[in-house]
Write a structure and sequence with these properties.
TIM Barrel, 5 domains, carbohydrate binding, signal, beta-galactosidase activity, hydrolase, glycosidase
Length: 948
């Protein structure tokens, strides 16, 4: 009976809450996947001039109406360009419950582009709303027919009648759209109700809340109950509204609250009531966190008394099929992807995001810069004041929001700065993201796109430095390229607060006027670390390693390795002893194995060190007695939430040991050398390799089983010079040898054919000075290539200043035509530079051939590609199709291409390679494997981009 009575009380409480909370009725769908069809008329462009249907929420361009505009079209097409001022006319019939009569009923728009005029049953709901990214509402209680059909009419103008609104958010460097793109709903509350709350919850447990009331009752009691998310009540506070004030402030203290940080996103909830004569009239519920944010001038940014360093990214609200109309699942995906890079912060560029995104930042832990629109020009004060209010009252209670950003890159109206504190009880600092020096505000300099040298100077200045845009990631430039140097500057500098990479994802839209093509508007919008559907580019995993809070710099196991590894704690709050470490001893699959990958032969765990943030120390891997008999050691670190921080792999065996199984002789016949006409031919087993007597270069390859192979025209020295001098040959025991002499920087190349058919190539060259790359090249037709399997670091390509994010393994990549930043977004890119190659097997329509090296640190370049588009693709490539290199170039960024490519702008890793003296290497070639059974038109299989 007792249990039944408790259940009855719980049921009554739930019923009471349901009856006294605000009731919601959606008129549109809830997101871009759950829509409702409304009547629609478009005034211009496609499908204009007649009534039809449109799905709400959504942009009309994505449903075949109107015309597409990129915000900077006026730059592209000249000063006389005028944006299409399309209007969308919406109609929708709806019914409200008769029981709502006597309540305050609001119609709420979460977002509409841009000027929005609302009528209900032919009557104006209120003033036209101007501004695309903000929640707005009208009280329509006196315009409704209760229990009957009602007519909603909405006119949306793509361009605003207020030029300052257009300047702030329409004439911008991003796609602009039209339409009601976020949900529309009715919200019914009692006449006396809580309109909104503003919470200030500090790290010391002090709690203060402004309760903003509509139609306040004299003598009503305002009550707040604070609970943790498990429902445990931790505090209650109340106050009698004796003067019927429209704002009542409640205060209390919670003892020893669990604090909110991006590393420990502890949340609480507060239920707020209006009670009259012991009866609850209305109640609301908010989530919040206890934390204290401080800007200590000339020092740093502090949360809960500890300095933080921001590892952030700029994010547009975006999905290729639906533009800025998204859903909670996509918001959650993006938060997880950002945290998956070991980032801890996000800038909402250049407008407030969907509410769901902020909810996930709260619950999973990301610091947020919430930004008022203003791309490079600002709202007028008249237009901006109501928008600041709408943004802040919607978002103020999110503990994840660190700062308010009052516009971007000069789009700052200084008269709006003091407006934020009117609605934010916690009085967060207001910042300006800008691209001009000298525009620091409130002790923080957010200047964009400073280089390594100027960053050093700024960090030595008086202000905290927190660039809200840096490392511009157009195409495959920057992003993680150079980030390691820049991040170390911020981490080690007193006033370095970190920064925000531009940008999260390529902003490519599915063009409904161009058969569904993905359009990133040329070089304007392919700026992401991910593709438009969140395909991971090479920078993604590189950032994951660079930003790893479990910071390991060990690149190679030393000869005296005893299991001890140095580590630095780059958390801001968390001791490394909360991490979980696991290790594996591995052997790698061979070329003849059907699949790439490795075999785990032994595994175990290690104890993470007791290191506080910013401390350095070491930990011990408990090595097995026979650990040196395995090929590699892998270590995985997971955080306190069970999420992977990073996985490192170190070779145990040398390249020489790793390639020995490949070089075993399969035939016992003697290798031979013959001379005929202009060719000298080495033959081993079934393989013939011919060299030109006129150039010394490899000229022809043949296999008795698979005819000719088109690998030829090398070696060519890619830096320096080498002039052919003479060629000679001889037989030595069961081997046959060709020796080619050169003058210049390369002297001698010696080829040794073994009876098995393996061809050994020994070469050296001498360079003194700085070069973008160094090594040799051969030619091979790219269109013959199906893919490649290799033992080395992968699966992504690298640059000299982006060597991170790749791990040692046997990988297999299929040939694709991806040029990063444009369709098709297939990753990893096949063409590029690959690092630490032990062996490489090319899979072609002519057969398979393998190259291996016994020395370390070989880079292989595959075919023609570029990192950055421009008047000429950058950086420049070595000659030839396939290169074997001792050094590779760094890649710059969009900002470094205005005059000349300048990858060095982001630090020492961007400098050219410096060579002194002789460089020696041995390559082994085997051209005797069977032809591929894959057809010539082989296409890489599709993957699920959301889960794979």
């Amino acid at each position: 009976m007792k249990n039944l009575f408790l259940c009855f009380l719980t049921f009554c409480a739930l019923q009471s809450f349901a009856q006294t909370q605000t009731q919601i009725q959606y008129l549109s769908g809830k997101d871009n996947e759950q829509t409702v069809a409304w009547d629609f008329w478009c005034t211009g462009g496609r499908k204009a001039g007649f009534w039809t249907k449109i799905n709400v929420p959504g942009h009309w361009e994505q449903q075949g109406f109107g015309e597409y505009n990129y915000g900077r079209d006026y730059v592209t097409y000249g000063k006389n360009f005028r944006f299409a001022d399309e209007k969308g006319l919406y109609k929708h019939q709806f019914t409200v419950p008769a029981a709502w009569k006597g309540k305050d009923v609001y119609i709420v728009f979460e977002g509409s582009m841009t000027d929005t005029e609302v009528k209900v049953n032919g009557k104006s709901a209120g003033a036209i709303h101007q501004g695309s990214f903000y929640r707005f509402k009208y009280n329509i209680s006196d315009k409704l027919k209760y229990g009957q059909a009602n007519l909603l009419e909405v006119t949306v103008s793509k361009m605003s009648a207020d030029n300052s609104v257009n300047n702030a958010e329409r004439l911008a460097d991003y796609w602009i759209f039209g339409g009601i793109y976020r949900p529309v709903y009715l919200a019914a509350s009692p006449k006396q109700h809580i309109d909104w709350t503003a919470i200030d919850a500090k790290a010391d447990g002090s709690f203060s809340m402004n309760v903003n009331l509509k139609n306040p009752l004299k003598g009503a009691e305002i009550i707040a109950e604070i609970s943790d998310l498990k429902g445990n009540l931790v505090a209650t506070t109340k106050q009698i509204n004796s003067q019927a004030d429209s704002v009542v402030t409640l205060k209390t203290t919670v003892k020893n609250p669990a604090l909110w940080t991006a590393e420990t996103p502890h949340l609480y909830q507060v239920k707020t009531y209006i009670s009259q004569a012991g009866k609850n009239i209305h109640q609301t519920q908010d989530r919040f966190g206890f934390r204290t944010i401080e800007v200590r001038k000339q020092d740093g940014i502090y949360v809960n008394g500890k300095k933080i360093k921001l590892k952030g990214v700029n994010r547009h609200v975006w999905w290729p099929e639906t533009g800025r109309s998204v859903n909670a699942r996509l918001d959650l995906q993006d938060v997880k992807l950002i945290k998956g890079m070991n980032m801890n912060a996000v800038r909402c560029s250049h407008y407030p995001p969907d509410k769901a995104f902020l909810n996930y930042c709260d619950s999973l832990g990301l610091y947020v810069l919430d930004e008022l629109a203003g791309w490079q020009k600002a709202y007028s004060t008249k237009a901006g004041e109501p928008l600041v209010k709408e943004m802040v009252i919607r978002d103020a209670n999110h503990p994840s929001i660190l700062f308010w950003s009052n516009g971007n890159e000069g789009g700052h109206n200084f008269s709006l700065i003091d407006d934020y504190a009117k609605y934010d009880l916690s009085k967060r600092t207001v910042i300006h993201g800008h691209h001009r020096p000298g525009n620091a505000i409130n002790g923080i300099d957010c200047n964009h796109y400073e280089d390594y040298n100027s960053t050093q100077k700024i960090l030595a200045d008086t202000n905290i430095y927190m660039p809200t845009e840096f490392m511009h990631a157009q195409d495959d430039g920057a992003g993680a390229a150079g980030l390691s140097d820049m991040w170390d500057l911020h981490w080690n500098a007193k006033k370095g607060a970190g920064g925000f990479i531009w940008a999260f994802a390529d902003e490519a839209i599915v063009r409904t006027d161009r058969n569904g093509m993905l359009d990133a508007n040329g070089v304007n919008a392919p700026d992401g670390l991910l593709g438009p559907h969140r395909e991971k580019e090479g920078s993604y995993n590189a950032i994951k390693e660079i930003y790893s809070p479990f910071k390991i710099v060990l690149q190679k196991l030393p000869d005296n390795f005893d299991g001890k590894i140095e580590v630095e704690n780059r958390y801001n709050f968390t001791n490394l002893n909360t991490c979980k470490l696991s290790w594996e001893l591995l052997n790698f699959n061979l070329p003849e194995d059907k699949t790439a990958g490795y075999k785990v032969l032994k595994s175990g765990t290690a104890i993470a060190p007791n290191l506080e943030p910013f401390e350095k120390g070491s930990f011990q891997i408990p090595l097995a007695a026979d650990w040196k008999s395995y090929q590699a050691l892998a270590l995985t670190a997971k955080d306190q939430h069970g999420e992977e921080i990073y996985r490192w792999v170190w070779k145990i065996q040398t390249n020489e040991n790793l390639i020995n199984p490949l070089l075993k002789s399969k035939l016992s016949a003697k290798a031979t050398v013959t001379e005929k006409d202009s060719l000298i031919t080495l033959k081993g087993g079934e393989i013939s390799v011919s060299f030109s007597k006129n150039t010394g270069r490899l000229s022809a390859l043949a296999n008795d089983k698979s005819a000719a192979i088109s690998f030829r025209d090398g070696p060519v020295l890619v830096s320096g010079n080498a002039a052919f001098s003479k060629i000679a040959y001889r037989e030595e025991g069961d081997k046959a040898i060709v020796e080619v002499q050169y003058t210049g920087d390369m002297k001698t190349v010696t080829y040794t054919m073994y009876p098995s058919g393996w061809l050994q190539m020994d070469y050296s060259f001498a360079l003194n000075g700085k070069y973008p790359f160094a090594g040799i090249s051969f030619n091979y037709p790219e269109n013959y290539v199906l893919g490649a399997k290799f033992l080395g670091k992968g699966p992504f390509r690298v640059w000299k200043n982006r060597l991170q994010g790749v791990t040692y393994n046997t990988w297999e990549n299929f040939n694709n035509n991806t040029q990063t930043g444009s369709a098709p977004w297939v990753f990893p890119e096949f063409k590029g530079y690959y690092s630490n190659i032990t062996w490489l097997q090319m899979n072609t329509v002519e057969g398979k051939f393998t190259i291996a090296t016994p020395q370390e640190d070989l880079f292989v370049r595959l075919f023609d590609f570029y990192g950055l588009s421009g008047m000429q693709p950058h950086p420049a490539l070595p000659v030839g199709d396939i290169s074997f290199l001792e050094g590779i170039p760094a890649v710059g960024s969009k900002l470094g291409l205005r005059i000349t490519p300048r990858p060095q702008m982001y630090g020492p890793a961007g400098e050219m390679n410096e060579f002194t003296g002789e460089q020696k290497r041995t390559l082994y070639f085997f051209f005797g494997l069977e032809p591929s059974d894959k057809p010539n038109n082989f296409v890489m299989p599709k993957v699920n981009i959301l889960t794979d």
